User: What shape does this take?
Amino acid sequence: MLVIDGSKGEGGGQIMRTALALSVLLEKPVRLFNIRRNRPQPGLKPQHLESVRAIATISDARVEGLHPGSIELTFIPRRPKCGRYRFGVSTAGSITLMIQTIFPVLALCEGYSIVELEGGTDVPFSPLFDYMRLVFLPIMERMGVKARLRLIRRGHYPRGGGKAVLEVWGVNRLKPIRAEFFGKLLKINGVSHCTNLPSHVADRQVKGACTHLEKLNVPCEIEEEVSRGAGKGSGIVVRGVSASGQVLGADSLGRPGKRAEVVGKEAGRKLKEYVERDCGVDPHMGDMIIPYMALAEGKSIITTCSLTGHIETNLWVVQEMTGVLFRVSGREPVRIEMVD
Assistant: This one.
C-alpha cells in the first residue's frame, strides 16, 4: 500500500485528489495521513468528502476514514466503470475540483460517461467553470480525450446551488503533450458572467479586462452572460488562442466590495503576462497537467510562467506514486519535462 503525507508542499486538498485518481489508475491502494493538516480547519470538509465518494463510486472502492474532519483516509480501489453518475454537495463546494478528482479516471476508462454535478460552479480557491470548459478540456483533447462540459446553472459562495453536466469519451491511452511555447497570438475570447446582479457588472468586467488585452492588438470577443440563480456572484475567464492552436487562460472572481472593473483587470493582466512570456501553459494548467504527463505514452514537455506551490506539490505526489521523474529548469518561464 502506498502511503502519502497530506501535509507535504502546499498541504491542501490537491494531494488527496491526485493521489486518489492515481490509486485507481495504478490499481494500488493508498493511505493518506495529515490530510489538509496545515489548513485553519484541517481534515476533510464536505466538498472533499463528496470528491472521495465520487471517485469511490466510479471505482467501486472500499474507503476507511470518510467522515468530516478526518485527517486520515485508506482507499482501496477496484476496476473503474464508465457510466452515468450523479454527485453533489449541499454547500458551495467546488464542482471544478470534483472534476479534477474524477476526470483522470474517466479519461482512461475506455467508453462513454456522463456525470451530473451539483455545488459551486464559480467559487474561491478553484478554477472557474468556464476555465475548465475553455482551457482544460481543449488541452485534454490534444492528449486524446474528447469531453464536453455543459452549464445548467451557476452556483456561487456561500449558497452554491450550481449544476453542470460532464461528458467524457474515455480512451485506453493518452498522447504526450509538447507545449514549450505559446507562439503567435491569434485571438482572445472568453466569458464574463454575473448572477442575480445588474447586467452592467458583466459589461464592466469586460471593459476592465480590455484595458490590458487591447494592448495585444488581436480580435477580442468576450461573451457577457447574465443569469438568475440561487445566489449572487460574478466572474470572468479570458482565453488566448495561438496560430498553432495552443490555449492560455486566466480567470478572476468577483466578491462583495470588489469593483467589477478590478475583477476584469485581474484576468486581463494575467493573460497578457502569460502571452508575453510565451508560456506553453498557464499556471492553473501547469499543476493540473502533471498527472496526465506521467500517464501518457511518450515524453511530455511544458513551460509555464512560474513554479507555483501547487505545481511543486503535484510533482511530488506524482513522482512518489508513479516513479516517473520530472526535470524542472529555468525561471519565468519554467520548463518541466519528463526524465528519459
About this structure: The chain is about 35% helix and 30% strand.
